[in-house]
Design a protein that fits this description.
Elements: E1 4-8, H1 11-24, E2 29-34, H2 41-51, E3 67-71, E4 75-80, H3 87-92, H4 95-100, E5 106-110, E6 123-130, E7 136-143, H5 145-152
Parallel strand pairs: 2-5, 2-6, 4-5
Antiparallel strand pairs: 1-7, 3-4, 6-7
Helix pairs in contact: 1-2
Bound molecules: adenosine-5'-triphosphate (ATP) and magnesium ion (MG).
Magnesium ion binds near residues 42 and 110.
């Protein structure tokens, strides 16, 4: 079940949505972004980072490393699991150690579908669907009260 569905008509709308989310985030947040190549995961992440007052020049998909770390109102750990084969490989690279860092900050995981079973009880799942060149359907699913109230405020 989805708690909130957002229809984005432009990159700017997706970015603005991310910004709104970033402004509302508290320490101990894990956000899993799910969806195919080019659906808008990094763009939403840039918006989230802007909302957390991260210097945006730093924010790009961490293609050659698993995680990029940014300093804003809270530390942000931006993970991109595109190259991750399977969960076993996830354990090898210490994915649980990365996830544990969320306690002090915010973790945003692109290709989060690869580690769904490792997400903490309280997390936000965001699923993107490409509707057309400029349109995206973005579905939010919250586990835990904190994220439920966060996405209520996005309406
Ligand atoms: N409504 C929209 N929301 C988000 N992105 C959009 C939208 N319309 C067009 N786009 C375009 O789609 C692309 C999204 O790129 P982005 O890097 O954010 O995707 P991604 O999901 O991170 O891809 P990858 O899987 O390669 O990491 C951008 O070029 C952006 O301009
Ligand atoms: Mg990306």
């Amino acid at each position: 079940m989805n708690d909130f569905v957002f229809l984005s008509n432009s990159p700017a709308a997706t970015y603005a949505l991310g910004r709104k989310i970033g402004e509302r985030l508290t320490a101990g947040s894990v956000i899993a972004l799910i969806g195919e190549l080019g659906c808008g995961k990094t763009l939403l992440t840039r918006g989230i980072c802007a909302g957390l007052s991260v210097n945006l020049r730093q924010v790009n998909s961490p293609t050659f490393v698993i995680v990029n770390e940014y300093q804003g109102r809270l530390p942000v750990y931006h993970m991109d699991l595109y190259r991750l084969g399977d969960i076993a490989e996830g354990f090898e690279i210490g994915i649980l150690d990365y996830l544990a860092r969320a306690e002090s900050g915010v973790i945003v995981v692109e290709w989060g579908e690869k580690i769904l079973s490792l997400l903490p009880d309280e997390s936000l799942r965001v699923r993107f669907h490409i509707l057309s060149a400029r349109k995206r359907r973005i579905e939010f699913q919250a586990t835990g009260g904190k994220f439920r109230s966060l996405i209520k405020g996005l309406d």
